[in-house]
């Protein structure tokens, strides 16, 4: 829930440029204690550039950014000591054991040996890696390495945990295990800030999020509120043989009668945004259309993004 107290992160007019290229174009957002806040958008939307500024590893070009009430330009080292960071790519020492990766990282923060040992045991249990404590990192699965990276980011008991595309490249089972670990952290009161281009991940993990496109924020709210504001309750997906989508969409358009209902033609399918998906499919068959396949599903954040930008998250 949104906290009325001072935000942990506050950005106003935040901008990041690289020469003539603007990666982040004057965005405003706040993150409050105990919430899971997300940046949702496709690759190149400006999510990672924003995260690097919040992590105090990239300078702000213009605008105001405050983290834990401090200015990154003046207080970067102090802020970094109070953050946990999970980068897109794991940066583990592959030749060391699982335990030693945590131990060395803890020593970077100056944690005393007498407290670091119990802390590592706790984190290994949390990451479901206690039975691999003495194993080298290199042969571990991608999911195990990702859980170890998250455990490492928690060694210093950070006030804010930053996760940049936390499950990219993982198989579905590994993703769900990682979601469970992050869900537990969220309910323990850890403030999470994550970037993702997976709409299901954003819906699973985020209390509140912003949708980014082209370096700008195009919408903000909870996943449920964004779907309610920008999409219909259901979506009927119809797939036609190559070259038939445009004609099918034109014939289906008159059957979509609700004020907020609509037809979207994509390269590989036609989407009917409606309140009754089964009724929409029946209308399609009554028109004599014969899709190669069809399904009815609930609206997702992917549909929100399509409505706001005219393209999908994977474009």
UniProtKB/TrEMBL annotation:
<dbReference type="GO" id="GO:0005524">
    <property type="term" value="F:ATP binding"/>
</dbReference>
<dbReference type="Pfam" id="PF00005">
    <property type="entry name" value="ABC_tran"/>
</dbReference>
<dbReference type="GO" id="GO:0016887">
    <property type="term" value="F:ATP hydrolysis activity"/>
</dbReference>
<keyword id="KW-0046">Antibiotic resistance</keyword>
<dbReference type="InterPro" id="IPR003439">
    <property type="entry name" value="ABC_transporter-like_ATP-bd"/>
</dbReference>
<keyword id="KW-0472">Membrane</keyword>
<keyword id="KW-0067">ATP-binding</keyword>
<dbReference type="InterPro" id="IPR027417">
    <property type="entry name" value="P-loop_NTPase"/>
</dbReference>
<dbReference type="GO" id="GO:0005886">
    <property type="term" value="C:plasma membrane"/>
</dbReference>
<dbReference type="InterPro" id="IPR017871">
    <property type="entry name" value="ABC_transporter-like_CS"/>
</dbReference>
<keyword id="KW-1003">Cell membrane</keyword>
<keyword id="KW-0813">Transport</keyword>
<feature type="domain" description="ABC transporter">
    <location>
        <begin position="9"/>
        <end position="239"/>
    </location>
</feature>
<keyword id="KW-1278">Translocase</keyword>
<comment type="similarity">
    <text>Belongs to the ABC transporter superfamily.</text>
</comment>
<protein>
    <submittedName>
        <fullName>Lipooligosaccharide transport system ATP-binding protein</fullName>
    </submittedName>
</protein>
<keyword id="KW-0547">Nucleotide-binding</keyword>
<dbReference type="InterPro" id="IPR003593">
    <property type="entry name" value="AAA+_ATPase"/>
</dbReference>
<dbReference type="GO" id="GO:0046677">
    <property type="term" value="P:response to antibiotic"/>
</dbReference>
<dbReference type="InterPro" id="IPR050763">
    <property type="entry name" value="ABC_transporter_ATP-binding"/>
</dbReference>
């Amino acid at each position: 829930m949104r906290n009325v107290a001072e935000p942990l992160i506050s950005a106003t007019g935040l901008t990041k440029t690289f020469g003539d290229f603007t990666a982040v174009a004057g965005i405003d957002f706040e993150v409050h204690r105990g919430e899971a806040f997300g940046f949702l958008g496709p690759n190149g939307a400006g999510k990672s550039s924003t995260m690097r500024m919040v992590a105090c590893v990239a300078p702000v070009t213009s605008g105001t950014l405050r983290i834990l009430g401090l200015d990154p330009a003046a207080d970067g080292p102090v802020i970094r000591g109070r953050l946990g960071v999970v980068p897109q790519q794991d940066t583990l020492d592959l030749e060391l054991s699982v335990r030693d990766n945590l131990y060395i990282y803890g020593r970077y923060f100056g944690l005393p040996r007498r407290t670091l040992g119990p802390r590592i045991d706790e984190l290994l249990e949390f990451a479901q890696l206690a039975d691999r404590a003495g194993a080298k990192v290199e042969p571990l699965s991608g999911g195990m390495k990702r859980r170890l990276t998250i455990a490492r980011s928690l060694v210093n008991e950070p006030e804010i945990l930053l996760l940049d595309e936390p499950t990219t490249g993982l198989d579905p089972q590994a993703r769900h295990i990682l979601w469970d670990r992050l869900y537990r952290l969220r309910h323990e009161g850890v403030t999470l800030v994550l970037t993702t281009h997976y709409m299901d991940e954003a819906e699973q993990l985020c209390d509140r999020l912003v949708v980014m496109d082209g370096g700008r924020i195009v919408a903000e709210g909870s996943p449920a509120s964004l779907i309610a504001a920008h999409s219909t309750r259901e979506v009927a997906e119809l797939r036609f043989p190559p070259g038939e989508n445009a004609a099918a969409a034109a014939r289906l358009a008159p059957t979509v009668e609700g004020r907020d209902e609509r037809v979207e033609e994509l390269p590989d399918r036609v989407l009917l945004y409606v309140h009754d998906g089964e009724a929409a499919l029946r209308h399609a068959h009554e028109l004599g259309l014969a899709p190669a396949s069809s399904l009815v599903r609930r609206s997702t954040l992917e549909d929100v993004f399509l409505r706001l930008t005219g393209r999908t998250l994977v474009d």
